[in-house]
Design a protein that fits this description.
By secondary structure, the chain is α/β, with parallel strands linked by helices. Helices cover 27% and strands 28% of the residues. The chain is globular. The N and C termini lie far apart (48 Å). One of its GO terms (molecular function) is 5'-nucleotidase activity. It is found in: Cytoplasm. Its cofactor is a divalent metal cation; Mg(2+).
Length: 249
């Protein structure tokens, strides 16, 4: 398969390097990623300035790689339109530095890059690894991503589905298995740290993760030691009340 790799941690991040190292064993890949870290940029795109694209060399990676002076969604756009002529079988975004579970999928540049691929009718996957004490689990996450591609490629590699893969910070032999599940109620107690500056005030966003443990969700199962897989879709329509609201008019 021909795979496009991107992320939101930057083209020189360890996560995308590890993913590329694993996937280029069996696939043709091209890497197009932000020139700098663009975490939590969601689905923003660059409109009022040109995107600067540069070919870069990643030591130990044989595949071509490009940096883009924009967001993860920008990277997918420019890759599909200018660097690959749209000839891509699948887009993989990651491996993200930290899980993208619960409400994080709305903020995540990693997930948004995968969603951008789905908008272009290209199957996609977001891959994220739990981080703890500065330690990562990228090699294990890369292997699960590779295995998931093999499992879905014949029947479930559909252009309107974004596969959201999260891997806990455990050795592979200690992982309990894979759970197919919905996203959970992972939220934050956010606040702003206020400081005075010469011509006004500064507000630095701070916060702590709420310990929400709804069962049958990605948040719950990751904490239990499972890899989680959630099929996502970019259609935000609330179908539960669509017909009811239609009757009002």
């Amino acid at each position: 398969m021909k795979l496009l790799l991107t992320n939101d941690d930057g083209v020189n991040a360890k996560g995308i390097y590890t993913l590329a190292k694993e996937l280029e064993k069996n696939h043709e890949i091209i890497i197009v990623a932000p020139s700098v870290e663009r975490s939590a940029c969601s689905h923003s795109i660059t409109m009022r300035e040109p995107l600067i694209v540069k070919e870069v060399k990643l030591n130990g990676i044989k595949s071509k790689a490009y940096s883009v002076s924009g967001t993860p969604a920008d990277c997918v756009k420019v890759a599909v339109n200018k660097l690959t002529d749209g000839k891509v079988d699948m887009v993989l975004s990651g491996i993200n530095n930290g899980v993208n579970a619960g409400i994080d999928v709305l903020y995540s540049g990693t997930v948004s890059a995968a969603i951008e691929a789905a908008i272009y009718k290209i199957p996609s996957m977001a891959v994220s690894s739990e981080i703890e004490g500065g330690e990562d689990n990228y090699e294990v996450a890369a292997k699960y991503a590779s295995d998931l591609i093999e499992k879905i490629k014949n029947k479930y590699l559909k252009d309107d589905v974004v596969w959201n893969l999260n891997v806990p910070i455990l050795n592979k032999e200690k992982i309990k298995g894979i759970k197919i599940c919905r996203i959970g109620g992972r939220t934050y107690n956010s606040y702003f740290e206020e400081n005075a500056i010469d011509d006004g005030k500064s507000f630095q966003l701070r916060g702590e993760l709420n310990n929400v443990q709804d069962i049958d969700t990605d948040v719950h199962f990751i904490k239990q030691g499972y890899v989680t897989v959630t099929p996502l879709h970019y259609d935000l329509t609330n179908f539960k009340i669509l017909e009811e609201v239609r009757k009002l008019f």
